[in-house]
Amino acid sequence: MRKAILVNAALLAVAVITLCPLLWMVSVSFMSPGEANSFPPPFLPRQATLQNYRELFSHTGMGRCFLNSLLLATLATFLSLLFNVTAGYAFAKLHFAGRDRIFKVLLGALIIPAQVAMIPLFLMLKNLGLVNTYVGVLIPAAANVFGIFLVRQYALALPNELLEAARVDGAGELRVFRSIVLPALGPILVTLAIFAFLGSWNDFLWPLIVLTDDHLHTLPVALASLSREHVQDSEMMMAGSVITVLPVVAVFLVLQRYYIQGLLAGSVKG
Amino acid sequence: MNGSRAGWMFAAPALIVIAVFFFLPVLAALGLSLTDFDIYAVADSDNLRFVGARNYLRLFETPLFWKALGNTALFVVVGVPLSIATSLGTALLLHTGVTRMKGVFRTALFAPVVTTVVAVAVIWKYIFHTRYGLLNYALGLVGVHPVDWLGDPRWAMPAIVLFAVWKNFGYNMVIFLAALQNIPEDLYEAARVDGAGSVQQFRFVTLSALAPTLLLVSILTMAGYFQLFAEPYVMTQGGPLQSTTSVLYFMYEEGFKWWNLGSASAVAFVLFLLMFAVTMLQFFVARRWSQP
User: Fold this and answer.
1) N or C, fewer C-beta in 10 Å, chain B?
2) Are A205 and B229 in contact (CB under 8 A)?
């Protein structure tokens, strides 16, 4: 009994400390300009106002950046589904020359940090005239080893008999994929989609390098440069953080089960 | 044979993308790091010369590069154990089975993981504010004098470590939680029969069952922490007195501020080799440990 109280109290304390910065962000975003810069730091706005959000959307172009981020994350999600699902299925269930060796090479490549490829990739895109375009931002995210791995692990569990039976009935490989494999992969497709969406939405270094025009910037890139210009405007910066964080937290809260499942699948790759 | 063709057709699109936009650039980075590719070569590649290992040699004579290595090492050496300890501690609390709100707590503790690092770094910049920040306010309640977290070279990196632990511990917590749930109850039962107290149970049952998970988590976490970039970019811009300039921050400035792309590629490769060496070291230590 005493243990239960202690554990619950400890968990509550950690949860409060963990959520405090996020709750504080929301609260400050509704304060009037300058209100947060006082001592002791106020926890709630004296009078809640939407002024920071209005200012943000009318003067800083964050509204457009929000749409940019949304468009890019959506496209990245589609690309990820398009490329990784077929490959993951092939590595799990189709036999082709060199399959296992290629898969080993892919897994081994996970140890190479993505930043190693960034500089030549940038020069490559520059030669193709793709710097400062969304194609340039999206290209490297289209297929990735983690996505292929995720789908493969899930697809391994599909019963071979099911696929064979369809083939015996005369279904071609595309048909088998579309009418049997894809429906059976449902849950992992959701997981993959969440990872792709969040990955693209939260990405910073690559869009920072590739997108030079302000009007193409994603939210994180715009927010970082805004925070350098508006150091004093903590209330407006918090409003900017809210609109950046809110969509991904919402996606996570709604689809949490799928997200955690993917995270755990990715952590058993050893 | 027909199956082989189908397999290739399904795998080829992704493999081509990965080959062209990942493997090829990695090889090109190695080549690039052996040239003097700079702003003139960006304009006209005729200005490109092969310089052998000169970029690497010059890096090792650059004090800021060593400083960046040291800062990154500090971030990894302090941040990774602290992060893993927090993850393990919270996972153990959640696993005790005495809380009815396990799901709620888990979600709350995990929330920072999914947030955008730039946005939460902006929040923490204000939390670390010397006069109006929440942290100094909270510390003031217990009598600690205000700390100039992001303005004092001694405190800027610890502040970033604190932020990173907050942002990341939920990830490993979920992994630990799953591993804890997989430990069979019989093991504890057997240990109790043998007269093991709760500390001994933790040491000999829990920790030894978690060993493979610990190895995996420490490898993944370390790889992540080596790639420190957005935090100093937003919170300190590498300062004060370059105390938070990380290797990647140095690479970014070298490459995309000064356009020394040859030298920046060399930085990227040094980082890669360093990460590779540390990963191998962890495997080695883990193997020595598991077979005494």
Assistant:
1) C
2) yes
Q: Which of A151, A40, A43 is nearest to A92 (CA)?
A: A151
The model carries a pTM of 0.94
pLDDT digit string, tens, across residues A217-230:
999 999 999 998 88
Domains of chain B by range and CATH? Answer: 63-290 (1.10.3720.10)
* Whether the predicted interface score ipTM is above 0.90: yes
The answer, yes or no, to whether the previous bond of B112 is cis (omega within 30 of 0) is no
DSSP helix, strand, coil percent of chain A (3-state; round to 5): 75, 0, 25
- Residue from B37, B39, B47, B123 whose CB has the most chain A CBs within 10 Å, to mutate: B123
Intra-chain end-to-end CA distance of chain B, in Å: 49
Give the best residue of B2, B5, B9, B10 to mutate against chain A (max A CB count within 10 A). Answer: B10
Sole residue written with tokens 């190479």: A112
Q: What's the CA gap between B169 and B225, in Å, rounded? A: 12
The partner residue sitting opposite B174, judged by closest CB among A24, A118, A263, is A263
- The count of other CB atoms within 10 Å of the CB of residue B63 is 8
pLDDT digits (tens, 9 = 90+) for A233-252: 899 999 999 999 999 999 99
Distance from the Cα of A22 to chain B's closest Cα (Å) equals: 8
Contact A106, A145 (CB under 8 A): yes
Q: Three-state SS for B260? A: coil
> B24: which chain A residues are within 8 Å (Cβ-Cβ)?
120, 124
Domains and CATH numbers, chain A: 1-49 (no CATH), 60-266 (1.10.3720.10)
Q: Using alpha carbons only, what angle is made at residue A248 by residues A245 and A249, rounded to the nearest 5 degrees?
A: 80
Q: Among partner residues B7, B29, B114, which is closest to A94 by beta-carbon distance?
A: B7
Q: Which residues of A touch B126 (CB under 8 A)?
A: 28, 36, 234, 237-238
